[in-house]
């Protein structure tokens, strides 16, 4: 091996040792100066050791000078590159969520301050209030969802749409470990008490479907009806599903350009070992702004090919989204068994182009005795964006107790035209 190659190998070993040391120290302290200093010291030690080996055959009268030049020059170059790419905060535009007329806040006993909007029922109604639960987690669209699901107010439903903790205009948590399914369930129960409702109708999209089912499981008798739209996995052992397989090469490259620079990569790595250290290193405002851009790059994956990607969203919640999917997050409790004794009329909606597995819908169908499946062959994950009228016709008929305009699918086997995982 040539001398130059050995020097390069010394630098690479120093970088690897620095990363390992940084993450190791971050497991025991959330203070960035300490874990960054540990990484620097490990880099210097391994880089210097490698240089001593790489230059041992240099003439004795030049050896000290060469080593000093390579060590200080290499260290300065590395520190400059690291400071520029990993220490400087990202400058993504921090755009607020779209404004919503009549938006207010709930201050809940759980400690959450949640932004919400209420669309009152037209005329007199004795129907339970309807609450829409957005997906992600951490991906609200209060304006779009209140405009769309607010149409049900014409059928006598009072509709609530809110931003879950850690997203939109709702409060962020100082400790990312607080973003759990259990907390969201507790917030939803506090909302029920706040609005004075005995029972609720829940429409949950994606993660919101998981939240709706988990709430129903832990609060028997509180849910009148449910719509689970492209519901997320209920199984505690299910890994996070990736939507990137639905992006083309150009879209993937644009997405990776946002994910792979050193600073977001380091923040993500810290999140796996110590979420509080990640939060101290890169705070909510910075990571939420980057998450906005990442999400908006993935929008085509949420729809069937050729469909509009939907509106760009802002004010999303990075830590609310990423902590529950991280290695540091323990799995939530299995709630499916607690649904089996509850006769909650449930409509499960699944689109042909959904990136989530088919089994993620079947597990709810098998657990809920009164669940039915509506399969939309022209829809993706965001089915109400791809086929809004067809979707709304199904939801409205189900909630009003009328026959669905389309046949309910009785066969739970994977359809031949389904484009997602089995």
Structural features, described:
This protein is of the alpha/beta class and 422 residues long. The protein contains 15 helices and 8 strands. Helix 13 links the parallel strand 7 and strand 8. The model has no long low-confidence stretch (mean pLDDT 94).
Highlighted features:
about 10% strand; elongated; single chain; alpha/beta; about 425 residues
| Distance between the ends | 49 Å
Q: What's the number of extended β-strand segments?
A: 8
Q: Helix and strand string, N-terminal first?
A: HHHEEEHEHEHEHHHHHHEHEHH
Find the structural class using helix and strand composition. Answer: alpha/beta
Tally of helical runs = 15
Radius of gyration, in Å, reads: 25 Å
The outline comes out as elongated
Oligomer: single chain
User: What is the overall pLDDT average?
Assistant: 94
Biggest β-sheet description? 8 strands, mixed
What's the helical proportion of residues? Answer: 40-55%
Strand order of the largest sheet: 1-2-4-3-5-6-7-8
Low-pLDDT residue spans: none
Residues in β-strands, percent: 5-15%
In short:
With about 425 residues, this protein is an alpha/beta fold.
List the helices and strands and how they pair.
Layout: H1 3-26, H2 32-54, H3 60-87, E1 104-107, E2 113-119, E3 130-133, H4 142-149, E4 159-162, H5 181-195, E5 200-205, H6 207-218, E6 223-229, H7 249-259, H8 262-273, H9 275-281, H10 284-298, H11 318-322, H12 336-339, E7 346-353, H13 359-367, E8 371-380, H14 383-386, H15 388-399
Helix pairs in contact: 1-2, 2-3, 3-8, 5-6, 7-10, 8-9
């Amino acid at each position: 091996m040539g001398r130059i190659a050995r020097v390069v190998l010394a630098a690479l070993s120093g970088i690897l040792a620095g990363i390992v040391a940084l993450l190791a120290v971050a497991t025991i302290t959330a203070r960035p100066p300490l874990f960054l200093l540990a990484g620097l010291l490990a880099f210097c030690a391994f880089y210097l050791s490698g240089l001593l080996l790489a230059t041992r055959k240099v003439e004795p009268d030049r050896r000290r000078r060469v080593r000093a030049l390579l060590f200080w020059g290499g260290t300065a170059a590395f520190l400059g590159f690291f400071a520029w790419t990993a220490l400087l905060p990202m400058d993504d535009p921090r755009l607020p969520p779209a404004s919503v007329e009549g938006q207010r806040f709930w201050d809940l006993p759980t400690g959450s301050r949640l932004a919400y909007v209420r669309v009152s029922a037209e005329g007199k109604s004795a129907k339970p209030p309807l609450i829409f639960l957005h997906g992600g987690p951490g991906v609200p669209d209060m304006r779009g969802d209140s405009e769309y699901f607010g149409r049900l107010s014409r059928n006598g439903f009072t509709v609530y749409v809110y931003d879950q903790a850690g997203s939109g205009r709702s409060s962020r948590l100082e400790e990312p470990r607080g973003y759990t399914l259990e907390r969201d369930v507790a917030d939803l129960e506090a909302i029920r008490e706040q609005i004075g409702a005995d029972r609720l109708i829940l429409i949950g999209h994606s993660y919101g479907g998981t939240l709706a089912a988990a709430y129903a499981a832990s609060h028997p008798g509180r849910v009148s009806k449910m719509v689970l739209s492209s519901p997320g996995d209920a199984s505690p052992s299910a890994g996070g599903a990736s939507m990137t397989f639905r992006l083309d090469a150009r879209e993937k490259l644009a997405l990776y350009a946002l994910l792979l620079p050193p600073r977001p990569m380091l923040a993500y790595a810290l999140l796996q070992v110590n979420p509080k250290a990640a939060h101290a290193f890169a705070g909510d405002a910075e990571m939420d702004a980057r998450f906005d851009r990442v999400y908006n790059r993935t929008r085509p994956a949420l729809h069937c090919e050729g469909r509009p990607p939907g509106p760009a969203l802002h004010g999303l919640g990075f830590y609310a989204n990423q902590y529950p999917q991280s290695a540091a997050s323990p799995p939530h409790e299995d709630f499916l068994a607690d649904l089996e004794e509850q006769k909650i009329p449930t409509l499960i909606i699944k689109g042909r182009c959904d990136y989530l597995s088919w089994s993620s819908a079947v597990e709810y169908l098998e657990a809920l005795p009164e669940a039915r499946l509506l399969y939309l062959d022209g829809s993706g994950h965001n089915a109400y964006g791809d086929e809004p009228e067809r979707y709304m016709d199904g939801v409205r008929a189900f909630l009003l107790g009328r026959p669905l305009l389309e046949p309910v699918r009785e066969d739970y086997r994977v359809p031949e035209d389904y484009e997602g995982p089995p």
